[in-house]
Design brief:
Number of helices: 6
Number of domains: 1
CATH architecture: 3-Layer(aba) Sandwich
Number of strands: 6
Strand content: 15-25%
CATH class: Alpha Beta
Distance between the termini: 21 Å
Largest sheet: 6 strands, mixed
Mean pLDDT: 83
Helix content: 40-55%
Length: 164
């Protein structure tokens, strides 16, 4: 996979060790990852760049939720696939996720499930574009979007920020 073909993934979790684990797993699979430890950092990252998929912890800092982050992402791109990562979803939370077309992965998440679900969301989201003949721009230089490193988006780190 070349740099132009890399999918950009936003991962959000307020537990630093969990966030680092998700990031390393995804990077090892060749994804470009932006990892944020707060909802405000994630929302700033969304404002700064396009993401191909959003993976977000349900319960974030100061009673913020993953729904807020996913809503911000979908204001930018209504078709962006997203999943909540949670250790304790209520029936109401699960119902709300289903109604909004948001996947749920329950912690502890098996690595195989995590990667398979992420890959499936990306494939499903890109099939209609390819079938309809629309160009699928994943490279921000091609789409006019600016690529930013972790330093530009608050308490987040990205694959690009480590390659300086």
């Amino acid at each position: 996979m070349t740099a132009q073909e890399k999918y950009r993934v936003l991962v959000v979790d307020d537990e630093a060790s969990v966030l680092l684990t998700y990031r390393l797993i995804l990077e090892q699979e060749g994804y470009e990852v932006v990892a944020c430890g707060t909802s405000s950092g994630a929302i700033a990252a969304i404002a700064a760049q396009h993401f191909d998929v959003v993976l977000c912890d349900y319960s974030l800092e100061e009673q913020h939720t993953g729904f807020e982050v996913i809503t911000a992402a979908r204001k930018r791109d209504a078709s962006v696939p997203a999943a909540l990562l949670t250790g304790y979803a209520t029936k109401d939370t699960a119902d709300e996720a289903v109604n909004q077309g948001i996947g749920i992965m329950f912690k502890p998440i098996e690595i195989e499930e995590f990667l398979a679900t992420t890959s499936k969301m990306l494939r499903r989201n890109n099939e209609p574009r390819q079938e309809s003949g629309k160009e699928n721009n994943r490279n921000p230089q091609d789409s006019g979007q600016e690529r930013t490193g972790g330093g530009d988006i608050g308490p987040c780190s990205s694959t690009n920020s480590r390659k300086s």
